[in-house]
Design goal:
Blueprint (H helix, E strand, L loop, with lengths): L2 H22 L14 H18 L14 H16 L2 H4 L2 E4 L2 E4 H23 L8 H14 L21 H8 L5
Antiparallel strand pairs: 1-2
Helix pairs in contact: 1-3, 1-5, 2-3, 2-5, 5-6, 6-7
GO molecular function: metal ion binding
Pfam family, one: MDMPI_N
């Protein structure tokens, strides 16, 4: 398996469940667990941060206008463009210095933005009254990312401070508490 298919396949594993959830959103104005954000704001954050990441690497992801009311279409076009970047071997194999160390652009995409897709999938689901369960592999990814971020994760605008998990909480509830979220 080449690095290209590895990064693209790993990206797809993060993006597809998020895409399925975006498709099911019925109330874009519903508040999320992210203070001050509704579902629309959350999706805009994901799109904007991925676009900004690509731009910092010298690649452009177009703004898919359509209309802000057609968020599903906007997301599908955006997600397709990011997946194409994840499959571009020249792009994903470039070295990159990050706040958590040296890695390739593809590894950084997965580490930071794959993390974002996992965590915000839960947030978006909660905004719609849904409860999702992370797989053990997803929880592993979230925990590895949190460990690498250290205290930097709790700077303003990133994550709320960690919460205390209830006594006897399951693994997901403990991880969500580390993310500043109540299960």
């Amino acid at each position: 398996m080449t690095a290209e298919t590895t990064i693209e396949g790993r990206w797809k594993a993060c993006a597809e469940p998020f895409t399925q959830l975006v498709r099911s959103v019925t109330d874009w104005e519903a508040p999320t667990p992210c203070k001050g954000w509704n579902a629309r704001d959350l999706l805009d954050h994901v799109i904007t941060s991925e676009r900004d990441f690509a731009a910092r690497q010298g690649r452009e992801i177009p703004v898919f206008d359509g209309s802000r009311n057609e968020l599903w279409t906007q997301w599908v076009k955006h997600a397709s463009a990011v997946r194409a970047l994840a499959g571009d071997r020249t792009f994903v194999m470039r070295p990159l210095g990050t706040a958590t160390g040296e890695m390739t652009v593809g590894e950084a995409l997965l580490h930071y933005h794959g993390f974002d897709l996992l965590v915000h999938r839960w947030d978006l689901a909660r905004s719609q009254g849904q409860d999702i369960r992370f797989t053990d592999a997803e929880l592993d990814k979230i925990e590895r990312a949190l460990d690498s971020f250290g205290e930097q994760a709790y700077q303003p605008g990133i994550l709320a401070g960690p919460l205390r998990a209830p006594e006897g909480a399951d693994r997901q509830a403990r991880v969500l508490a580390r993310l500043g979220r109540s299960a």
